[in-house]
Amino acid sequence: MAESKTAMIDTATSARSLTRKDGVVVKIRRWIITGVLLPGQKLTELDLAKNLEVSRQTIREALAQLTRESLLVQEPFKGIKVAEPSAQDIMDLALLRESLDLLALDQLLKDVTQDSLSHVAQAWTVFEALENDADPLARHQAHIAFHHAIWEASRSSTLLHVAPVVEGLMTIALARDLQVRQDPKREHSIHQKYVHAILSGDHARAAQAIHEHTVGSASELVRLLG
């Protein structure tokens, strides 16, 4: 299978467009999403510096950013490890996402010009074009960008303010999901139902689709994780 453009850029670390720290962040994020680094796995600056052939200072800066994004966890006296969400963490995130998506929905449906819904429709078109990309990082980024675009379309400054933290938590949850199930048809179907319900302008229908997409999907994941 041909390597996607995103994968080729990442493999080369794209020194022309990324700083060394940014390149390390992309590489570690890819390892987390694809399961090269597993939940709970400890990381050391020295090993990463050797493997990625960069300075420990660069590694330190990258790890600090990924910790702020909630992909990594700093444990006092124990070091840094990949975030390891519990079943309760996964459900808590789902409930948080549901409440935030409902806030976005309220704002979207208040826009009488329907410009906001047009923005959602455009975001769906972009996501559909990328959701089957050969590169798992590209697929993940498209997924996150799709949900971010919906919040952006709502024009809620509160949602955009909390987005970086929520998206970091989503990355960890999605990585866990990828490790236990790979069902592109299911993913497409649930997102299609989700976006079509929002575009329908029917609040009750959209709220139900949001619940299924967040809490329903999380409940299934928790069951699969046992």
Present the secondary structure layout:
Elements: H1 5-12, H2 20-34, E1 42-43, H3 45-52, H4 56-68, E2 72-75, E3 79-82, H5 87-110, H6 115-130, H7 136-154, H8 157-180, H9 184-200, H10 203-225
Task: Tell me what you see in this structure.
The protein contains ten helices and three strands; from the N terminus they run ααβααββαααααα. 74% of the residues lie in helices and 4% in strands. The protein has a three-stranded antiparallel sheet. It is mainly α and 226 residues long. Mean pLDDT is 89; it is low at 1-17. It is globular. It has two domains: 5-82, Winged helix-like DNA-binding domain superfamily/Winged helix DNA-binding domain (Arc Repressor Mutant, subunit A); 87-225, GntR ligand-binding domain-like (Four Helix Bundle (Hemerythrin (Met), subunit A)). The longest helix is centred in the middle third of the chain and has 24 residues, at 87-110. α5 packs across α7 (136-154) and α7 (136-154) packs antiparallel against α8.
Can I get a quick summary?
This protein has 226 residues and is mainly alpha-helical. It has helices at 5-12, 20-34, 45-52, 56-68, 87-110, 115-130, 136-154, 157-180, 184-200, 203-225; strands at 42-43, 72-75, 79-82. It contains ten helices and three strands; from the N terminus they run ααβααββαααααα.
The Cα radius of gyration reads: 18 Å
Largest sheet: 3 strands, antiparallel
Which percent range fits the helix content? over 70%
What's the CATH C level of the largest domain? Mainly Alpha
Short descriptors:
Four Helix Bundle (Hemerythrin (Met), subunit A); 10 helices; 2 domains; mainly alpha; disordered N terminus; globular; 226 residues; three-stranded antiparallel β-sheet; Arc Repressor Mutant, subunit A
